[in-house]
Amino acid sequence: MSLEDDLSCAVCTDVFRDPVLLGCGHSFCRQCIYDHWSSSGTRNCPICRQVSRQRPVANVSLRNTCESYLLREQNTRTDRKDEDEQPCPVHGEKIELFCQNDEQLLCARCRKCGHGWHKTMPLQQAVRQRRGKQKAALRSAEKTLLSLQNGTARDPKISRYIQSQVQETERKIKVEFEKLHQFLRKEEESRIMSLNEEEDEKRGAIDRSIQGEILTICDRIKELKAGIEDDDISFLQNYQRIMNRSEYTLPEQELSSESLIDVSKHLGNLKYQVWEKMKEICPYYPVILNPNTSAPQLSVSDDLTSVTSSTHRQNQTSDLPLHRSRVVLGSVGYSDGDHTWEIEDLSSSIRLDGK
After folding, report:
1. Reduced to 3 states, what is the DSSP secondary structure of residue 104?
2. Can you tell which superkingdom this protein's organism belongs to (predicted)?
């Protein structure tokens, strides 16, 4: 901050003229502080808002400092080279005045010609005044920039509202995905159960075939034992026949599609088939509602397709009442074409079904 900033009044942003000191310690131009009190109707300080019950006292030290600063500045400008000064483009004389009505630079002849009844001020005073205002605007812009960079410019209500939106939306996302996970888990269990049932069926067919072979061999073993116990003549007479029947070998097991698991039935287009089923629990709506446009007395469903009048929500106070009308906008707009919608009114509940 420059010396001129320190010597500038916070009200007029110009160098102090007849500065006075308030009880709170802040100084202002005498005329500026009285004008401020007259317009505001209170005797508060424009900076700290503290009420000043005593009359302001002259700040002699500050007044002397300002006079010294102005004298030094005047001498500095006087010492500048003549080529740095621009003469009046109309009369060629030195520019010494500034017209506040027309915002124009004037020489002495300009004032007599067309600005005799206008409010004018010395050039250096106009420069100081406007430079002070520009510096004040610069400080304000720098303060705004700093607050933006530090994050202090954010509205805490909006930040809290956004945080609550994130928390609530995250909760609903988890609920929706849990429904999908539950569906997938049930579908997985169903398909594994179907695979196990086919396995039991195939194994049962193999077991039944083996049981048949066991019965056949058991019959031949009994016949061999009975033949051995026959008398000699009967034994010799039946020997060849019994021996021919005893020659039995197990048939080779052939692999065929009927005896194996039908893998293609369980894996073929698995994801597509599951997706087809998921469409039954995952309906698509061409137009969904924008909850940010919902009035406080309206409640939008979790799938953003219907609106219900909610007394409970009416009683809730919201820091950010976005809309007051009983209207909810859709989140998708159309630039052309004809679009019609069937509106089903079910006891103050509205659902949009696109056609």
Report:
1. strand
2. Eukaryota
Profile the chain (355 residues) by mean pLDDT over runs of 10 residues.
76 87 91 90 88 89 89 71 66 86 87 84 86 84 79 73 90 92 94 93 87 84 82 81 74 72 90 89 82 80 81 49 64 62 51 43
If you ran DSSP here, which 8-state letter would residue 249 be given?
Answer: -
Buried b / exposed e across 152-163, counting CB within 10 Å, b at 16+?
eeeeeeeeeeee
For residues 346 and 319, what is the distance between their CA atoms, to the nearest angstrom?
30
What structural domains and CATH numbers belong to the chain? 1-79 (3.30.40.10), 82-153 (3.30.160.60), 173-281 (no CATH), 291-354 (no CATH)
Under DSSP, the state recorded for 8 is B
d(CA 210, CA 255): 15
- 35's CB contacts (< 8 A; 6+ apart) are 11
Q: How many helices (H) and strands (E) does the chain have?
A: 10, 10
Place of tokens 């083996």: 210
DSSP strands (E only) in the chain: 19-21, 27-29, 57-58, 97-99, 104-106, 120-122, 298-300, 306-309, 341-346, 349-354
What 8-state DSSP symbol labels residue 256? -
Q: What gap in Å lies between CA 242 and CA 219, rounded to an integer?
A: 12
pTM over 0.70: no
Pair 69, 2: CB distance under 8 Å? no
- Cα angle 29, 33, 34; round to 5: 115
Computed on alpha carbons and rounded to an integer, the radius of gyration of the chain in Å comes to: 50
